[in-house]
Amino acid sequence: MLTVALIYPFIKQDTRLALKQRWSRQLLTVLGISLKIGAGDTPNNALAAHPVGLLVANHISFLDIFVINAWAPAAFVAKDDMRHWPLLGWLSGRTDTIFMQRGSRRAAHAARDHLVGQLRAGQLIAVFPEGTTSDGHTVQPFHSALFQSAIDAAVPVMPLALRYVDAQTRQPSHVADFVGDMALVSCLWSIAASAGLVAQLEPLPALAPDGLDRRHLAAHAHHAVAHRLMHMKSLRESVKRSIPA
To answer: What is the pLDDT of residues 187-204, one digit of tens each?
Structure first.
């Protein structure tokens, strides 16, 4: 908190991103969460190679932000009410988070212009286009509004498939789910009290915005994420059936 308040605003962007990444990886370690990047069973927590563009991912938990930042630090787009969360809201507001105000067309246009400017400047922006969290079983439709910023800035859209599995059983885990009216403290306690989690983050092929409108671009990104998560679910069930009782 002292670093964010006294040092963060005055250091170079590369240093700020490195700090954000280090803090995120430290938080995952403190909570007993392992980070796995990509497909396959081989453990992998390799850092991203400085991607540029618009990251879009399915949304399960507040933890998703730190999982993505641990791989590739980004500026996140968040609902304006997150600004009022205890501690996390304060930290988010001072670490490049872009807040979107609901119900205001003027605010939406201003936020879109800001996003376009950031993307053109080479900033990595991350959004959760479902607009809310889910339990990870399905991927809700992607809202298309923010995809326009990628089209206007002429940058790729990079889908990410995200899931959490139990570190012991390697089966899907829901201890990190942050859905419904669950309080942030309750979700945090559920994660901390678990036997361990693996956050699996799989970058999918980037989508070029050329020749697509925002709705088609959002639909392609949604299909990529949903198809990948469904494939992994089918693969797990197939492996489970193949193990002798």
So the answer is: 888 888 888 899 999 999
